[in-house]
Amino acid sequence: MSELASFHDVLFPLAVSFGATGGPERRNEIVTLTSGREKRNARFAHSRRHYDAGTGLRSLEDLHEVLAFFEARRGSLHAFRFRDPFDMKSCAPGATPGPLDQMLGTGDGSARRFALVKTYGSGPDAYQRPIFKPAAGSLRVAVGGADAAGNFSFDAETGEVVFSAGKAPTGGQAVTAGYEFDVPVRFDTDRLSISLRAFRAGQIPSIPLIEVQP
Questions:
Q1: In what residue span(s) does the DUF2460 domain sit (predicted)?
Q2: pLDDT tens string 93-152
Q3: Are 176 and 151 in contact (CB under 8 A)?
Q4: I want to staple 113 with a disulfide (CB 3.0 to 4.6 A). Which of 12, 16, 160, 166 is the partner?
Q5: What's the pTM?
């Protein structure tokens, strides 16, 4: 019986993810003109993250846990949560997320939905990354600098903070948020090739993961 791809709302083993390697990838087209100048074009609006979880394996217990996780996800079929060891907070790595960390928008008295984002850089060149998987219990939101606890929910389908009826931010009020977050990924392979002799000798297997749109 075939299965349809889906998102499993489970977290990849944390101990392994914190030893993983990887980061964002951009897809740009660069054409050199006859004048010697370059014409550059971004193929995609957003970056896509790739990881190798193999570098996070430290023991046979870790290896067994990842193998079980791989089988439960049916290889690359089902996506899941991954905690990026390099970028997992709305704030600086050593700080604690707070409700004023990231600007989501400005109220107009009627809008109740605000996309959850993380901004990189500043000014007109800043990049806003959509955040779809805030860590459970970590999302804090403020309106006009005041904590809005109890007045909002999070729509995991659209990646939006949704204010309760009658609680829409009034005109000119800044809507901000802070959170920890996970990256939706899947295994970028349908086969794991592992040798216990090689593992014991320090040869790390490759376990590729790739970011997906939830």
A1: 8-212
A2: 999 999 999 999 999 999 999 999 999 999 999 999 999 999 999 999 999 999 999 999
A3: no
A4: 160
A5: 0.90
**How far is residue 153's CA from residue 99's CA, in Å, rounded to a whole number?**
14
DSSP readout, 164-197? PTT-PPPTT-EEEEE-BEEEEEEES-S-----HH
Instruction: Find the Cα–Cα–Cα–Cα dihedral 117, 122, 123, 128, rounded to 10°.
Output: -20
User: Are the beta carbons of 210 and 188 closer than 8 angstroms?
Assistant: yes
- Element spanning 63, H or E: helix 60-72
| Residue 56 CB partners (closer than 8 Å, separation 6+) | 15, 16, 17, 18, 19, 20, 62
Domain ranges of the chain: 7-85+183-211, 102-179
For the chain, helix, strand, coil in percent to 5 are 15, 35, 50
Residue 85 carries which side chain, given as an amino acid letter? Answer: P
